[in-house]
Each structure stands twice: as C-alpha cells, then as structure tokens.
Design brief:
This protein is an all-alpha fold. Helix content is 78%, strand content 0%. It is built from 15 helices and no strands. Helix 7 runs antiparallel to helix 8 and helix 12 packs antiparallel against helix 13. The protein is globular and about 70 Å long.
Amino acid sequence: LNEAAAILQDAIDNDLQQPLDIGRGYSNLGLILMELSNTTGDPAAAERAVAALKQGLTYQKRDSAPQDWATIHLNLGLSLTMLGNYTGDKATIEEAVAAFDNALLEFDPQRQSVRWAITVRDRAVALNTLGVLESNAARFEEAIASFRLVKDELTLESDPYEWARLQAGLLYALTMLADIKKDVGMLYEALEVARLADSKTPRADSPIEWATNQQNLGGIEGRIYLAEGGIEWLKESADYWRDSLEVVTVELNPAWWLNSTFELGGTLARLGHDLGDASSVPEADALLTAALEMANQLGNQPVIEQTTALLRYLADTRSAIGAPQEQSEPAVVRARAG
C-alpha cells in the first residue's frame, strides 16, 4: 500500500493536468492511505489520508463537480473519524461529522438511497465516538435514530458488508447508552443485535467480521454480569474474547490485538477475584503484562493506566486467594512472540 500511494502521488504530481482528475487522484490517494492505516494501526497514515483529501477539495468544487465534491467529503469524514479514534481528539470527530453533513447535501435519499444511507450510517459512527468522548447520552440517542433510519436500505440481502457495519454501530450505541443510563434492558437489546450479526457471519467466510462479533459479544456479556451478576455471563465473556484472539493477532493489527488482550486479561482477573479461583490468575497476569508492553510501544496512555491498575488489582487478588506467583503463557501471548 505504501508503494501504491507513492506511485499515485507521483502521477498526481507529474501526470495529471485537469483539476477534476487531480482531485480524484487525491481522493483515491486518501482511500489507499486509509486502508494502510486500517491494516497497520498507524495514525500517521490516517493523518496523511486527511491531508490528501483536504488537498483534493482544493481541486473539486461543489458547483462544478457536486458528486465528486460530496464523495471527497464522505471519505474525509471517514479518515477524520479514523484519526479521531486514534487520538481521542473531540475537534477531529466534530470535523468528521461536518464532513458527512456536507456529503449529505448532495446525496439524495430518493435518487442515491444507498450512498445516502451509507453516509448517514458513517456519520452515526462518528456520533458514537463523540458520545464516548463527551459521555453524552444525546449523541448515542441521535446515532441510534440514524442507524434505525437507514436499516431498510442497508439490508443483509442487499449488501452483507454494509449491513454488518450498521449492526456493529447500532449495538455499540445501544451498549454505551445502556452504560450511561444504567439500563440493563438496553444491554439485552444490544445482545440480540450482536447475536444476530454473529449468526450471519461464519468465521470461514469472514474471519475479521467474525472476530469483531466475538469482541462485541464478550463486551456485552461482561457488562450484563457487572449489571446483574451471574458468573456464567463472565465466563462466556472470557470465552468470546479468547476466541477473537485466534484471528486478531499482533501482526494483523497491534492496536486491535491490544484491545482484545487487555479485555481478556481483565475479564480473567475479575473471574479470579469474584470466584476466589486461583486458576485464572496466571493467565490473566501474562495477558495484562503483554498488553502493558504493547500499550507502552503504541504510546496508549489510557490503556497503560488501566492495565497498570488491573495488575495491582490482580496482585491483591493473588495475595487474597493464595494464587501462584508464576505467569502462564497462553497461546495468544506465544503467538505474539512468534
């Protein structure tokens, strides 16, 4: 992808002459850099994508090429959302929402129903991020309304990929709103959405989407346990997180691997504490230690702080229940070294 980006940049600099062609070149360059960022977890590639798309907008004007102008704004919204998710910068996500709003000025729900629906859905994903950054229930409520608005356009039968992305966004919004409102019923609604997505996504056909579904199920069932108890919820949550790590390797995406490793380690730590069971403690220790190492490599300060706190919690649990000091080395950690 780096090579493809370099070749396209050279073509933009030396071969393309017409403003419309140059603008489209920058639009395509932005897409390549977004894919590079998505596959490598590299924030710098997302920054480059944003810069390329903004450069493209200097060549494509709404009055002369409205659809190209709207398409660049759609892609700009996506790249800004990606960058904002890396940096946690609220202003970047707000800029993403504004870019999607611009795209929707041209994407007509009657004449371009699918493009309109995809843009509404992607805008709702950005609203989810704002909801997290602001701890704002209204953002999630707006996102849920948007996801539901386009559900009849982005169906499983018409486009499984876009349907899956809609379901993922909807269940995330439901889960986060349930956290804010302390609404267990909404968690069960999210769980129903997650189970439907999982039932329609065989691992053999779509391993990445399948792994995402396992993460979603693990997160929701862990929340249900915290809300109303029932140790089986927590055990199932650990199983889902562990399953996801069969696909989500550090080589695939370090940031994604970090998330699953941290969540599995934390779930096992809670299992050890709440059950008074020493058997899960060594694996939890190994996972959280590996997660802390990766968080330091990536400079992810929030995860560094959370993992450090969980390791202290685990040490207290070990002392209380007499768990052994040595770490186990689960397969997901061995795979990282291999």
